[in-house]
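Database export, one record per block. Field names are fixed; values are copied verbatim from the stored entry.
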Amino acid sequence: MEAHPAQHELRGSGRVLTLSTIAFTLMFAVWLMFGILGVPIQKEFKLSNPELFWITSLAVLNGSMWRLPAGMLADKIGGKKVMVFLLFSGAVASVAVSFASSYPMLLVLAFLVGFVGNSFSVGIAWNSAWYSQRRKGFALGVFGAGNVGASATKFIGPAIIAGTAGATYFGIIPGGWRVIPIIYAVLLVATAVAILLVAPKVDHVPASGKPIREMLEPLKDIRVWRFSLYYVVVFGAYVALSAYLPSYYVKSFGVDLQTAALLTATFIFPASLLRPLGGWVSDRWGARRAMYFTFFVMLVACGVLMMPNGHIVLHNPNGSQTALLHYNISLWLFVLLVFIVGCAMGIGKAAVFKHIPTYFPDNVGSVGGLVGMLGGLGGFLLPLMFSYTQEWTGMWSSAFGILAIFVALSLAWMHWTIHRMHQSSSAHLNDLLERPHTGVPSSPITAPTPEEVRA
């Protein structure tokens, strides 16, 4: 298979990127559709908040737990075959959701439909196999922008649900929230057919002859687990907030579902569409600088968002009370800060996956699969943590306190690791770790690590 002489990419790489991004966008929409469908589902089945979030969380769980084997399988047999399988299986599960008649059945079907979430590690491995190191960060960023699919249901859902409520189509297709999964099923099948017809017939399979044990060997590296924690912060929290924010806006600010969906989209769009920019920044200035930017911005924004509305009451010796430090965040300040968090996440998601092909170029499927799996599992656990903490404290803002803790831990681990590597490497990397002409050592933010020097 020949590389294009001008772009140095394999012929057909553009088709792979386009088709995989469309497929991932659609499957991401299906994976997180319960963020909006959950509101009418909660009313119909009379569910509590934790019961509702179990539906979303089970879909996220199944869309995360198979990312490692899915990524490895894409490396072994080709991303095209695995992606087509996910599209067809997701269509079947999506249709079944429309005919759920009880809460236990909804839990089972939400779990099954969530399987499409594993398309992320498949697409990462598939695109990585078709792109050179020079363009890989940008290509993976473009593919990852398919996260914007999380906003699809939020845009089309409320209007379709309201416009079709109580109707029945062709004698069997129910209206209301139940018609949404059927629409998605049709689109999933159409996308699978498009991949079969348009994608390169001969796929690029980088690990076709590699033993499973050899593919799993890099997972012993502590860096893989560190990257996974980063991905919990920038992707797991993204998934959690995508599902959590509609209810947050409705319950905490009193807006209607349509408005809540649109406001949530102001978080989803930057967190998704800035991913190509994050890939370009990582290619141009380095993934580590992008990660520092992400963590610092998220920490400041979450520090404000986690503050509860109210005031401090002082009980004076004479029996009187004094109210101090009144605080009440406005809707638009909240939206702005969440938008900023989304921007930082969009940059950070691309930066995390820029690390992987740089440090583990021959094991993108397995390493990317594990990082994606643990990041996705964060998207399973965080909504439950958000929901139960809100139940215990009565404060919706407690979710951002939890997120701030994860961000602080990730930033501290990253900075400590980089500082320790510089200290141990300074004896033979002095020329690389010093600024030209000044003799002043560069900071851990800008100086290259030994792995980056070798790469």
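Remark 1: The mean pLDDT is 82.
Remark 2: The domain at 13-454 is CATH 1.20.1250.20 (Growth Hormone; Chain: A;).
End of record.
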